[in-house]
Amino acid sequence: MATLKHQLTSLLNFRPLWRFALLLSVIAIGFLATTSNSYPIPSAPSDKVNHLIAFIELTIVTRLAWPNLRAIWYAPALLAFGLGIEVVQANLPYRDFSLADLAADGAGILIGLLPWPFLPKNSDQDLRDSPKPL
């Protein structure tokens, strides 16, 4: 059990993975928000729920990628990303600008900022925190 816990902790603390996941998420969300094609992907019946889930995910992945970064830096950046999506959609003939979508983005960011028990604590590990030798 200790080995599994150590492996999960190592995975949660592997920042390059979460930074890559954030990059992929931003690309995928940007693409899905601007495409005119309907893709057979699972989604909620309400567009607002899709926004909420997407921005919860973006916030949690950002927290995993940069755990020591204060929310005052990345929360506005995520909301600006949501606003950017809406501005782009306003200029597309098959999409609309929606303040309700932006509000759902903000709600997703707020939920993502809540304490989550599986997220690693803001502590810098060094060699003193390594496992004991055999």
What does this structure look like?
With 134 residues, the chain is mostly helical. The protein has one domain (8-34, 44-114). The chain has 5 helices and no strands. Helices cover 63% and strands 0% of the residues. It has helices at residues 2-12, 15-34, 47-65, 71-90, 99-113. Residues 126-130 have low confidence and may be disordered.
Can you lay out the helices and strands and say which pair or pack?
Elements: H1 2-12, H2 15-34, H3 47-65, H4 71-90, H5 99-113
End-to-end distance: 17 Å
What letter string, H or E per element, gives the SSE order? HHHHH
Question: Percentage of helical residues?
Answer: 55-70%
Q: How much strand content do the residues show?
A: under 5%
Mean pLDDT across all amino acids: 85
- Taking all Cα atoms into account, the compactness measure Rg is 18 Å
Main β-sheet, in a few words?
A: none
Write down the overall geometry: elongated
Based on helices, strands and strand pairing, what is the structural class? mainly alpha
pLDDT < 50 runs, ≥5 residues = 126-130
